[in-house]
Fold this protein.
Amino acid sequence: MNTSSFIAVRYFRSKKKRNFITVLSIISMIGVAVGTMALVVVMSVFNGLEDLIRSLFASFDAEIKVEPALGKSFLTSEEWLKEIENLEGVAIVTEIIEDNALVEHNGNQLVATIKGVSPNFLDQGRFAKGYFWGDTTLGTPIRPGAILGRGVGFFLSVNLEEVNSYLKVYYPKAPRSAGSIDPSQLYNSAVLEPRAFFSIEQQFDDEYVIAPLSFVQDLLNYGEKRTAMEIKVKEGYSIEKVQERLKSHLGNDFLVKNADEQHAGLLRTVKLEKLFVFLTLTFILAIASFNIFFSLSMLAIEKKKDIAVLKAMGSPESLIKQIFLKQGALIALSGATIGLILGVLLVFAQEKFGLVGLGISSAVVDAYPVRIIWTDLVWISITVVGITLLASWRPAWLAAQVDTVKQL
């Protein structure tokens, strides 16, 4: 241990009576600890919310989604679909036709998004998160069934136990030059049997009706056109590598998106919120660090004679500065260590026992989700050290300016 570190530790651990300076030092340490703990907890909550969003969307969305780069739909063929299915790493290819349609049940009407899916849709592990109740099939070609979002079912007053209950689905026909006085000639209509409800996230619950691909294909007159393809990756294969293979195979006419890219805007919003909260708490921590500035300034005044003796013995100004910078670092590191430990323990307790609940009875999870990312702890530590050095520099400089002759 060099001289500056030895003296800084002595000042920090001195057994002197509790005067104003020591009280300020303790307050400084507590302030840093509380600020650090708050940063750890808040960052962990945002990480948990991000993971929850991903897991919920993964219950509805595909691991990889293929959409046309231009336009609303694209043509398919059996040979072309077979080529995609045979690509390395591709496990399941689900054909999708998705559009808005008017849905009616018992006089209640709602414009919903009807999503036609091929029979292997549920083989992709859908609805693993959230709630699902009812039949897990989409009926038969003669009696096609539908899986409704809970919000859609609630708005239309659908009762799954009701016998001979049907949804009427209407979709406008393509406009023609010659009009017709018969309104029924302006739209296609068909009926679906409600078979199940799902509840994942409000965006999906209030909007989607899932139906067989053949039903939607006939209703919308899509023929061999599709609006998207949803792809599940084989176990053991990297989603990123399969995504690159698909991009290379399909070319620039298609957009190939992974799960995060399908909801890039929402995830970007969560990350921005996390960043701004981090900056806000850092600013609060910087204000709390003024206690370090005052305690070191008072210590420099109290130790003027000690500093004068050191300078008389030939100590350079850099040594004096190092003593007070290290004194500030000891206060901050002690507080930061306590804050990190308390923060991590609090996060683990929340994860295990659910100390703070969401307060929503219908939520997918009962308590706030949390997850610690160790890089967050590194950035928090770097931030605390940086703020401490800034707060300690001025008192250290003032201490180094002590006039030896006047003090001795």
The chain has two domains: 3-57+266-407, 62-262.
